[in-house]
Specification:
Order of helices and strands of chain A: HHHHHHHHHHHHHH
Number of strands of chain A: 0
Low-confidence stretches of chain A: none
Largest sheet of chain C: 4 strands, mixed
Strand content of chain A: under 5%
Helix content of chain A: over 70%
Structural class of chain C: alpha+beta
Shape of chain A: globular
Radius of gyration of chain C: 23 Å
Shape of chain C: elongated
Structural class of chain A: mainly alpha
Largest interface: A-C, 45 and 49 residues
Mean pLDDT of chain A: 93
Helix content of chain C: 25-40%
CATH topology of chain A: Formate dehydrogenase/DMSO reductase fold
Order of helices and strands of chain C: HEEHEHHHEHEEHEEHHEHEE
Number of domains of chain C: 1
CATH class of chain C: Alpha Beta
CATH class of chain A: Mainly Alpha
Oligomer: heterotrimer
CATH superfamily of chain A: Formate dehydrogenase/DMSO reductase domain
Distance between the termini of chain A: 19 Å
Strand content of chain C: 5-15%
CATH architecture of chain A: Up-down Bundle
Number of helices of chain C: 10
CATH topology of chain C: Alpha-Beta Plaits
Mean pLDDT of chain C: 89
Distance between the termini of chain C: 92 Å
Number of strands of chain C: 11
Largest sheet of chain A: none
């Protein structure tokens, strides 16, 4: 099936070339980081995780959200998702790979990464995160690839695949739960130490992932003959709506507990992010952009007439994606480190090398996504975009 | 065979690449490095013996250093009882390099010859020596 | 040919696994070449079930009292002096009362002036229940079962910095770049660190092994007590039993083993 990725239009190749250039730039900066050390980033003794780990956290959510199309289709036989399911599965693959790459580029001694396997440490959440991410990658490659190749041959997918499909549905929430446990079990990090964190992660993931999927489906429909279906896109719109509302609701719960209790440590990070603390307010503007995007998105999503307009749905999806990207792919991690253990404030902002490496990793993800979608779309075009029966 | 020509060219390029290091050095003789043992500390010794016999040290020093490292850092053991009964402080920096204070003519020569780059010296301080 | 692609892949897969397994097995057998029985303890070594430090803040009067202690530690351990606060490496340093004991400060804002204004020595607390050890994915940081020291194995650290997020005391520093150029005078007896690893106070395990007390304690002129917390007759237990002392963030359940003696007898 891979051969279909080597035949494409001029736009396809231009896009691939563009991604390769971004990857190249990122790689050059990574070499610099590899030689000099993580001192090329904006991270510090106080804010010891930054952009990389934030992206990792956000992308685990994108990866997990594949389940939002897989579950209704396979467990509830929701036919409208028949064609889009493969897009969901093939979105999860590059998302998990990006997660792994972001962990890798964040390591101070990347060549020792295998120590995690060499000295498995069962009391470290990091170990379990490695296990669930690796497992999820395997499941999605297996399920996506087998389903698509059976489809190409016009036969039903093998029976044993059902087991792995169900396993992947159960597995999906686990990756984001375990990722939340990285943060929510740390004593003294009050911004993260909340039982709600895993639930918040999942809610925001099930909003940001499907919103990205809506955009990808619209792009695929515009540039190829493959139509994921209007009903599927509208159904995704509803999923985004409910989970965006849940996400905002969870944020409200957190705000209540943090402020009504009056315990200072629980509110410091939140005040720092949204209002600034002791004249330190580097993150305030982007956090408010996130809030404004959230409001716009909710207006567009909650009113059915607006949501049914595909252009407005696309705008809402862009808003949801970036609102949650700022919230989780930036504020959540940095906020947890401010103020530090001594109630002092060190601010964080990514440096140029850090941003270039980050973009490079995203470009690798998009390259893999492009290739996988190209394969899926080519095969759909080849078999005439007919309804498929799994 | 489909695309036979392309495959054969590809194979040739691959063979060329993979055998390049051997072809490149064919016929050239690189002398086996001779390690110098003429440091002041060693010359002071009446009985010139290393921690373990020379042959053992030659082949197993890396394994020994690895186990020493874990013993000292992780198990809190400090002294090593050699096979001949003498004891040594298990320390690369303070035991090994006290005698072998000529890192350039001892460690480096051989490591360069076999093209290994141990990262010991990123942390452990090599003895001062003239160039 | 009697072999199809599927069988070939199966055989290839199985033989790869077998050879990896075999290689691992061989390594295991080989590593037994040097038996553990060949390691012996130095008879001079100081031993305890649970080391602890008590800092008598009343004995720290002038800035020199603090400096002497900090320098003693930082010079023998080749701790670099990096002036950029973002990349600083610190094993033992001073913080104000308000910053070191946040919960105490909330509890009583009208505490005596001399406490409010006094610098406090802070270092790794060598917790009995250390969160850094709990989160480390490679056991690069671990608690020594024999005496409770929270150790760092710089050879194994992958630099993920999970321990820095886990430590509620800010006791851990990361080498954001090669520290060597920032060390004024190298102590040739002790290693430096390399870029990309986390470091912290190791309670002078290398000095305890040859029968000496930690450098900070030695340099404190009696301002710091060091001893076995599990032994009721040790000096440290006696001084803690007779003086009012506090610990940093004890409410987190980490059981810190560094005590601050605040009150007199």
């Amino acid at each position: 099936m891979l051969e279909t990725a080597f035949k494409g239009s001029r736009i396809y190749w231009a896009w691939v070339l563009f991604l390769l250039v971004i990857i190249g730039i990122g790689f050059i900066f990574y070499l610099r980081q590899f030689i000099i050390g993580l001192g090329v980033t904006g991270m510090s003794r106080d804010v010891s995780w930054g952009f990389y780990i934030s992206q990792f956290t956000f992308l685990v959510g994108i990866a997990a959200s594949g389940v939002m199309v897989v579950l209704p289709y396979y467990l509830h036989n929701y036919k409208a998702f028949g064609k889009i399911t493969i897009l969901g599965e093939f979105l999860a693959i590059p998302a998990v790979i990006m997660c792994m790459l972001f962990i890798f580029v964040d390591l101070g001694q990347p060549l020792r990464v295998l120590n995690v396997i060499l000295y498995p440490t069962l009391n470290s959440v990091m170990f379990y995160d490695m296990v669930v991410l690796g497992g999820y990658l395997f499941l999605n490659v297996l399920v996506g690839w087998s389903a698509l190749s059976s489809e190409r041959k016009g036969i039903a997918p093998p029976k044993w695949l059902k087991f792995f499909i169900i396993l992947s549905i159960i597995w999906a929430p686990s990756i984001h739960t375990v990722t939340a446990f990285l943060y929510s079990g740390l004593p003294g990090k009050y911004f993260w130490m909340s039982a709600l964190l895993a639930a918040q992660f999942l809610a925001s993931a099930f909003a940001s992932g499907p919103s990205l999927l809506i955009l990808l489906a619209l792009i695929v429909r515009k540039f190829t003959k493959f139509d994921p279906g209007q009903e599927a896109i509208q159904a995704l719109g509803k999923i985004v709506t409910y989970f965006m509302l849940t996400s905002v609701f969870f944020l409200g719960l957190k705000l209540f507990t943090s402020f009504y209790s009056g315990i200072p440590a629980y509110s410091h990070s939140i005040i720092y992010l949204y209002a600034g603390l002791d004249d330190y307010n580097k993150l305030v503007p982007i956090m408010w952009i996130s809030n404004i995007l959230t409001v716009i998105a909710l207006v567009l999503l909650v009113i059915p007439q607006l949501r049914k307009n595909e252009l407005l749905l696309a705008i809402a999806s862009v808003c949801v994606f970036f609102a949650l990207w700022i919230d989780k792919g930036f504020g959540l991690i940095v906020g947890g480190f401010v103020p530090n253990s001594f109630k002092q404030i060190t601010e964080y902002w990514p440096t140029l090398p850090e941003m270039s490496i980050t973009l490079g990793v995203w470009a690798i993800g998009f390259l893999i996504l492009t290739i996988l979608y190209k394969i899926a779309v080519s095969i759909r075009e080849e078999i005439g975009n007919v309804d498929v029966h799994h | 065979m489909y695309n036979g020509g392309k495959i054969i060219i590809g194979l040739l390029i691959f063979i060329g690449f993979s055998t390049f290091p051997f072809l490149f050095t064919m016929g050239k003789v690189v002398p086996i490095p001779e390690l110098k043992l003429d440091t002041p500390e060693i010359q002071k010794m009446v009985d010139k013996r290393c921690v373990e016999p020379k042959e053992y040290m030659k082949t197993e020093h890396m394994v020994m250093l690895n186990t020493w490292r874990d013993a000292v850092v992780r198990d809190g053991a400090r002294l090593y009882k050699a096979r001949d009964g003498r004891t040594y402080d298990m320390s690369l920096q303070n035991t090994c390099m006290k005698c072998h204070s000529n890192k350039k003519n001892f460690c480096d020569q051989c490591h360069n010859y076999v093209a290994v780059k141990p990262y010991c010296w990123d942390c452990h301080i090599a003895p001062q020596e003239g160039t | 040919m009697g072999i199809n692609r599927r069988d070939f892949l199966k055989i290839a897969g199985i033989s790869t696994l077998a050879s990896i397994g075999g290689a691992a097995g061989l390594t295991l057998i080989k590593s037994g070449a040097i038996e553990a029985a060949q390691y012996i303890d130095d008879p001079r070594a100081l031993k305890a079930k649970r080391w602890g430090i008590a800092i008598d803040i009343n004995k720290f009067k002038t800035p020199e009292d603090y400096k002497r202690v900090m320098n003693a530690c930082h010079t023998i351990h080749n701790v670099p002096e990096i002036n950029n606060p973002k990349e600083e490496i610190k094993w033992i340093w001073t913080e104000s009362y308000e910053h070191s004991f946040s919960s105490q400060e909330y509890a009583n804002p009208y505490i005596q002036d001399h406490l409010k204004k006094k610098p406090f020595l802070v270092l790794c607390n060598h917790c009995d229940n250390p969160p850094c050890v709990r989160v480390c994915p490679t056991k690069a940081t671990y608690k020594r079962e024999s005496d409770g020291i929270v150790m760092m194995d710089m050879h194994r650290c992958i630099g993920c910095r999970f321990c820095m997020a886990g430590c509620p005391y800010g006791a851990r520093s990361f080498n954001w770049r090669d520290p060597r150029p920032f060390i004024k005078k190298l102590n040739p007896e002790f290693p430096t660190r390399m870029k990309g690893v986390v470091e912290k106070c190791t309670l002078c395990y290398e000095k305890l092994a040859i029968g000496l007390k930690p450098a900070c304690v030695e340099a404190s002129n009696g301002g710091m007590y060091f001893g076995d917390l599990s032994d009721p007759n040790s000096d440290i237990r006696k001084v803690l039993a007779s003086h009012y002392s506090i610990r940093r963030k004890a409410e987190l359940g980490t059981t810190p083993c560094v005590f601050y003696i605040i009150g007199g007898q």
